């Protein structure tokens, strides 16, 4: 990179942290727990039905003091206030960032350009309630009079990942006769696989595109439209399609009744939009009461984030730990592991939230950054992932901080299943922290009756460095309220990391370049058109694709 460099190391607190890191890099968490019997209580916060234990981190009180000092220097409290106030903190697009308004359950005034937006937010929520109730109760029916029981959400990015994640997380609350499907990928297989499972007479398509021009979404929508028309005729479109959009002209042109168009706004970014009408599929699946309970949970976390001092503020603490590991320890990835099958899409959702928000190399000052911003986020449902990437988590040469999410109570209490699941979740955090020394591995094998020579040969293979950080996020039960709290917690964590790194967490310029280039390649694949300048590799690949098709 070139040009001016944005350098955090000039901050006083950053310098203190850099010096402190030298004292902390070889500190063993085992020793910290031995020295401090109250460590778990000290580094633990409870809010309603959620408890966050961050004691298994390479931190001391001094570490946290320096991190809080950094947050003060970077004006985290002021920036939080600016967001809730409706200031245009998305500076590259000159927009307010007000997903918090969508779940403002106190209904206190929130202003954008001098206008209180809560009346508009509440009107859309009321429209969502009426429509979702009508679908669930069989009042809004398909063209042939049949109840609409197959709900197909067509979107991409935040218009897909949020609803998909939330509906799966709340599957236990679905109406018994409702099925939800999601089409996002432009790959025709994604569309075809859903259409092969459903009956057109009983299907409602929700097309989610703010501009109603997103190429992936509109291509999929037109394919579904043709499928419906082939089965029921063109007049059926208005009875089987609704839109979440702001482009009434294009919505009407598609054949959707604009009365069934649900609005959302520029102050809501795509990856923060499941709280808006983008969540219509959630509301239909689980009912608007549960959708609003999800908003309630998010609002509770919003108020905690806005009003709680930093030393007890869950999103702030998690963000500061993320900065500590990314920029001082140079840990370049982080794992999210929910020990709940219903939360299986949470890691994919967080990949977009975190990496699209903070995967930036230009600061808010227009300078290139000299420090690491977003880590790589990955994960999956426990215990499955214990048999895949956990090998690297425990014995790999890269240290990967980890969030372990676990409910105390399962929706499906079958025999000992949940007890074994929770035992595994808690054991992984302890194992990552403690590890097992070479001597402990040797002694364990000898006690188990292994011959001395075999124990000597295997002792290093069976040892674990340990000292690998994790947070344990414990819920009473994953319901709509808890899910709202969880996702809002990660939203605010991501925002605070962006504040520290001085980047705009709310644009996504990096989404566009490849899509723009695809538009130039498409005509060449479809015909003999040429004249576009490509590198030799891309030119050769275009030629080979066309040759293979012949």
Shape: globular
Rg, nearest Å: 26 Å
Distance between the termini: 43 Å
Treating each run of at least 4 consecutive H or I residues as one helix, how many helices? 23
Mean pLDDT across the residues is: 96
What percent of the residues sit in helical stretches (DSSP H or I)? 40-55%
Residue share in β-strands: 5-15%
Query: What profile does the largest beta sheet have?
Result: 6 strands, mixed
Low-confidence stretches: none
Structural class: alpha/beta
**What's the arrangement of strands in the largest beta sheet?**
2-3-15-14-11-13
How many strand units? 15
Verbal overview:
- The protein has helices spanning 12-24, 29-35, 39-42, 61-73, 76-85, 99-102, 118-137, 158-169, 188-195, 215-232, 237-240, 248-254, 280-286, 288-307, 314-327, 346-358, 390-395, 417-434, 438-447, 452-458, 480-501, 512-526, 536-549, and strands at 5-6, 44-47, 50-53, 111-112, 115-116, 150-154, 179-183, 203-208, 241-244, 261-262, 333-338, 368-369, 376-379, 402-407, 470-475.
- The protein is globular, with a radius of gyration of 26 Å.
- The chain has 550 residues and is an alpha/beta fold.
- α4 packs across α15 (314-327), α8 packs antiparallel against α16 and α19 (438-447) runs antiparallel to α20 (452-458).
- The model has no long low-confidence stretch (mean pLDDT 96).
- The strands form four sheets. A six-stranded mixed beta sheet has the order 2-3-15-14-11-13, sandwiched between helices. A five-stranded parallel beta sheet has the order 7-6-8-9-10, sandwiched between helices.
């Amino acid at each position: 990179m070139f040009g001016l460099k944005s350098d955090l190391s000039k901050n006083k607190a950053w310098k203190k942290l850099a010096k402190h890191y030298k004292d902390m890099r070889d500190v063993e968490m085992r020793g910290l727990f031995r020295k401090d019997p109250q460590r778990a209580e000290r580094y633990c916060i409870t809010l309603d039905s959620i408890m966050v234990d961050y004691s298994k981190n390479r931190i001391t009180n001094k570490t946290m003091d320096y991190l809080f000092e950094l947050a003060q220097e970077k004006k985290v409290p002021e920036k939080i206030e600016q967001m809730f106030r409706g200031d245009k903190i998305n500076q590259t697009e000159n927009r307010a960032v007000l997903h918090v308004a969508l779940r403002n359950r106190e209904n206190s005034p929130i202003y954008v350009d001098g206008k209180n937006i809560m009346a508009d937010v509440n009107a859309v929520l009321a429209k969502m309630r009426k429509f979702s109730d009508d679908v669930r109760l069989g009042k809004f029916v398909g063209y042939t009079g049949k109840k609409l029981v197959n709900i197909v959400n067509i979107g991409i990015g935040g218009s897909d990942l949020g609803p998909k994640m939330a509906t799966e997380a709340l599957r236990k609350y679905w109406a018994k006769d409702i099925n939800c499907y999601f089409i996002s990928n432009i790959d025709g297989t994604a569309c075809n696989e859903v259409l092969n499972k459903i009956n057109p007479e009983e299907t409602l398509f929700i097309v989610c595109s703010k501009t109603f021009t997103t190429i992936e979404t509109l291509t999929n929508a037109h394919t579904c439209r043709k499928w419906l028309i082939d089965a029921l005729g063109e007049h059926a479109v208005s009875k089987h399609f609704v839109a979440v959009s702001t482009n009434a002209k294009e919505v009407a042109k598609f054949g959707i009744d604009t009365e069934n168009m649900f609005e959302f706004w520029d102050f809501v970014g795509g990856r923060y939009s499941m709280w808006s009408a983008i969540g219509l599929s959630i509301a239909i699946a689980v009912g608007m009461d549960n959708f609003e309970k999800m908003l309630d949970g998010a609002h509770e976390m919003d108020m905690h984030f806005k009003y709680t001092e930093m030393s007890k503020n869950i999103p702030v603490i998690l963000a500061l730990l993320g900065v500590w590991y990314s920029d001082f320890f140079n840990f370049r990835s982080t794992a999210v592991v929910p020990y709940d099958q219903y939360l299986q899409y949470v890691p994919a959702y967080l990949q977009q939230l975190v990496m699209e928000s903070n995967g930036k190399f230009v600061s808010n000052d227009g300078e290139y950054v000299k420090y690491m911003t977003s880590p790589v986020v990955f994960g999956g449902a426990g215990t499955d992932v214990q048999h895949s990437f956990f090998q690297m988590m425990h014995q790999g040469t890269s240290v990967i901080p980890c969030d372990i999410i676990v409910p105390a109570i399962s929706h499906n209490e079958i025999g000992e299943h949940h007890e074994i699941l929770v035992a595994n979740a808690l054991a992984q955090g302890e194992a990552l922290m403690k590890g097992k020394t070479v001597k402990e591995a040797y002694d364990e094998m000898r006690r188990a009756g292994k011959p001395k020579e075999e124990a000597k040969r295997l002792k290093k293979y069976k040892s674990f460095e340990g000292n690998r950080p994790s947070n344990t996020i414990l819920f009473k039960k994953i319901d709509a309220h808890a899910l709202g709290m969880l996702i809002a917690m990660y939203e605010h964590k991501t925002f605070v990391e962006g504040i520290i790194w001085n980047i705009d967490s709310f644009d996504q310029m990096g989404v566009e370049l490849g899509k723009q280039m695809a538009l130039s390649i498409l005509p060449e694949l479809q015909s003999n058109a040429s004249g576009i300048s490509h590198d030799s590799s891309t030119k050769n690949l275009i030629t080979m694709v066309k040759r293979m098709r012949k």
